[in-house]
């Protein structure tokens, strides 16, 4: 858009200079026109380029910060469940992917109870979350922890897309 406006301004000024030059005072007025043209072009280019870039950076950063705070809150909520030593949470949209550290000698029935209770508590704690995926196996918990730490360090969730999709595909959602 700025390029089109610039071209129209240049064309108009060039036609004006030619017209004035035919009148005999072309040299004096053409310096003024040239100065005006330069000032106008710099203003148009500066205004056109800076406005388009700012919102994208802020929106992405704000979204990462919001999801990061949301994940920290949900992780604290998950650790309130009896049997959970540590929780790692990654939030993506309306889904929370949770990795839980539990005692190694916890029985399978107890793990199932813990997963269900964590899922219910997280849905109750945050109305935006309607899909909770909980993992307790060491490998998956480590992967979720690494993603969570990467997001905490400023990386967007989208940079972990492939790995997060793989994890989500393997974990069944907790029941409501």
From TrEMBL:
This is YhcN/YlaJ family sporulation lipoprotein. InterPro entries: Spore_lipoprot_YhcN/YlaJ (IPR014247), Spore_lipoprot_YhcN/YlaJ-like (IPR019076). Keywords: Membrane, Transmembrane, Transmembrane helix. GO terms for biological process: sporulation resulting in formation of a cellular spore. The keyword Membrane applies. The chain crosses the membrane at residues 32-52. It comes from the Bacteria. It holds the Pfam family Spore_YhcN_YlaJ.
């Amino acid at each position: 858009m700025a390029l089109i406006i610039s071209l129209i301004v240049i064309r108009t000024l060039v036609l004006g200079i030619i017209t004035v030059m035919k009148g005999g005072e072309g040299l004096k007025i053409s310096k003024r026109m040239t100065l005006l043209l330069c000032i106008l072009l710099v203003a148009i280019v500066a205004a056109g380029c800076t406005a388009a870039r700012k919102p994208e950076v802020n929106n992405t950063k704000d979204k990462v910060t919001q999801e990061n705070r949301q994940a920290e809150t949900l992780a604290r909520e998950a650790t309130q469940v009896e049997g959970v030593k540590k929780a790692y949470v990654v939030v993506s949209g309306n889904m929370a992917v949770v990795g839980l550290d539990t005692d190694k000698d916890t029985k399978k029935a107890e793990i199932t109870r813990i997963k269900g209770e964590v899922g219910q508590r997280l849905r109750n704690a945050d109305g935006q979350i309607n899909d909770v995926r909980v993992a307790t196996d060491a490998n998956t918990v480590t992967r979720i922890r690494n993603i969570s730490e990467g997001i905490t360090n400023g990386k967007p969730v989208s940079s972990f897309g492939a790995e997060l999709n793989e994890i989500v595909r393997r974990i069944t959602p907790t029941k409501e």
